[in-house]
Amino acid sequence: MTATDRSIELITTAAQAAADKLAHDIIAYDVSDVLSITDAFLLASAPNDRQVKSIVDEIEERLLKDLGAKPVRREGDREARWVLLDYVDIVVHVQHSEERVFYALERLWKDCPELELPEDAKATKGKAAEYAKLRAEEDETAGFGELR
Prior knowledge:
Blueprint: H1 5-20, E1 24-30, E2 40-46, H2 49-67, E3 73-75, E4 82-86, E5 90-96, H3 97-103, H4 105-109, H5 119-122, H6 127-147
Parallel strand pairs: 2-5
Antiparallel strand pairs: 1-2, 3-4, 4-5
Helix pairs in contact: 1-2
């Protein structure tokens, strides 16, 4: 079994919405062979809670406006560390970067085929690592500035 056309349409639209809100490391897996509850997972992350919320809101708005899709379930809103949007055909996970590293969902689904995503979404690969490196350098620079 493979992801349906509807699932791919939802994933593509959600991935583009996430990319438009500067999500990091957007990736999608066809999980239809291993799960009976959904066809595909979309994973995305952001370096802070506010951006996680912004990405989730954009995905929800775009899927409703463009495809008439509403999530049947939304979880994790309050903390905005890991928000899950369940659209039955697809499940979207938007995680804070720290949660993304800790839970490493990619490891769980690495044997599932990756779904093709829009170029903007593909371009987000490695953004979390770049951001973390930049932050570490800024912290180091700030620390040295105080020593002088």
